[in-house]
Amino acid sequence: DEIIEKEVKDMPVIIDASRDRLYLRGKHEGLLEGQRKGLLDGLAEGERKGLAEGQRKGLLEGIEGMLEIKYGHAGLELMASVKKLRSIEEMEGFKELIKTSKTVDELRGFF
User: Rounded to a whole number, what is the distance in angstroms from the first to the last CA of the chain?
Assistant: First the structure.
């Protein structure tokens, strides 16, 4: 390897591969492919986040309506705590509890 490296350094003709037409074409195609993949990944992530946010918003509206209908103003006072719930699963669990609960205090126990 050392001999080859020395021979290449001593050669009078040096080829700059970074200026080669085939290299440049491959680089351009690679860049386009990377941009395309990045765009598709970004769109998929945006769609996933949008769906999750829509589901969260719908659950919040549904829970608010259920609390108002079943417990009036006292139930609506729980909405600040409901909005702090992190997961869709927690929100679904709370929604199910509203259906079976007998008092607002029972709902407060969830938090």
Answer: 70
Q: What is the pLDDT of residues 78-98, one digit of tens each?
A: 999 999 998 999 999 999 999
What are the residues whose beta carbons fall under 8 Å from the beta carbon of 67, sequence distance 6 or more? Answer: 75, 76, 78, 79, 82, 98, 107
Q: Helix (H, G, I), strand (E, B), or coil: what is residue 50?
A: helix
- Rounded to the nearest 10 degrees, how much is the dihedral formed by the CA atoms of 64, 68, 73, 78? -30
Contact 101, 107 (CB under 8 A): yes
| Encoded tokens for 106 | 């029972």
Q: What is the pTM of this model?
A: 0.62
Instruction: List, in order, residues 6 or more apart from 74 with CB less than 8 Å away.
Output: 104
**Dist CA 1 CA 6 (whole Å):** 9
Tokens representing 36? 């395309």
